[in-house]
Amino acid sequence: MKFNEIKQYITEDMSMSHVYQPVMLIELLKNNGIATEEEIATVILNRDPTQLDYYIDKVKNMVGKVLNKNGITVKDKNKHSLIGFNELTKEQTEELINLCRDKLIQYEDKRGDKIWEHRATDREAISGSVRYQVLLRAGRRCESCGVSVDDKPIDVDHIVPRSLGGKNDISNYQALCWECNTNKGNRDKTNFNELEKLYAHREKDCLFCKLQSSDRGRIVEENTLAYAIRDGFAVTEHHSLFIPKRHVMDYFGLTQAEVNAINQLMHSQKTYLDGIDKSIAGYNIGMNCGETAGQSVLHCHVHLIPRRKGDVESPKGGVRHVIPNKGHYEDKK
């Protein structure tokens, strides 16, 4: 390929979806036209400010503090100094470096790739379409701290880890920025086990807990954390209930993961019902939280009630009709 052809590709044909192409070409041009994948990956890594910020934080809040606390280093603003360095001979300096290298080799031999598991955001391939759905559902923000994908890289993470039986379905995915994902990854196994126990909680005498095992034929759709059934005392045709698998009294006890799971099933069932029943013109979504609000089964469940034109004389006001004479509020002005 001649100079003018390469120049034309760079100036006119190169599609810039990321920094990768020009960074790779620079490395090739600087190294007589040849570079290994490791060399190219290293220069890309060096251009990633999020990687730099991540390890600056580790130096500042972890390793720097440990060495300082043990009297090995001292800090002045953002600079760290080795105490007594000026008194070391060249031979002593080299010996200490070799001792550190020996420590690294021993540790790496013992732990292997597990050392870097907390930074591996693609340990298990997740398709682009699923990733898009998870990020869209999260509003392109971290579901833990709320930061935007424009400000920090967002990972698609398993809520219940695969190692603890978590499934590869969209209800078991969440959008986390790399920092929140790292913090989650730093939890010990006991905490993950407690999380798994939380989602596994069932009550022996609860209708919706028992249904999951004794009457599974009623379940029309499910995911990791929730399931859907048709209401046994339907208000309208295809009236559906969306129920967390965990025994929890009402909506206010749900985790964000369970809210996501229920929401995913509701969207899926709405699409299905719209496809099989063209008479549906709208929906009511509602739930009863507490006996005073009308809750009869004390296990959270969300109603999706299809509505059709003419099913009531005057639908205006919708869910406001749960209190008599409060639906038509405009008539009282």
Q: Which characteristics define this entry?
A:
alpha+beta, 333 residues, single chain, HIT family, subunit A, elongated, five-stranded antiparallel sheet, DNA Binding (I), subunit A, 40% helix, 13% strand, two-stranded antiparallel ribbon, 9 strands
Q: Could you outline the blueprint of secondary structure elements for this entry?
A:
Elements: H1 3-13, H2 20-30, H3 37-46, H4 49-69, E1 73-76, E2 79-82, H5 90-111, H6 128-137, E3 154-158, E4 173-177, H7 178-185, H8 189-199, H9 207-214, E5 219-222, E6 226-230, E7 240-244, H10 256-276, E8 282-286, E9 302-307
Antiparallel strand pairs: 1-2, 3-4, 5-6, 6-7, 7-9, 8-9
Helix pairs in contact: 2-3
CATH homologous superfamily placement of the largest domain: HIT-like
Strand content bin: 5-15%
> H/E element string?
HHHHEEHHEEHHHEEEHEE
Number of domains: 3
Assign the CATH topology of the largest domain: HIT family, subunit A
- Report on the biggest sheet: 5 strands, antiparallel
Tell me, briefly, the overall form: elongated
N-to-C CA distance: 79 Å
Description:
The chain folds into 3 domains: 3-46, no CATH class; 128-199, DNA Binding (I), subunit A (Orthogonal Bundle), CATH 1.10.30; 207-332, HIT family, subunit A, CATH 3.30.428.10. Helices cover 40% and strands 13% of the residues. The chain has helices at 3-13, 20-30, 37-46, 49-69, 90-111, 128-137, 178-185, 189-199, 207-214, 256-276, and strands spanning 73-76, 79-82, 154-158, 173-177, 219-222, 226-230, 240-244, 282-286, 302-307. The radius of gyration is 29 Å and the shape is elongated.
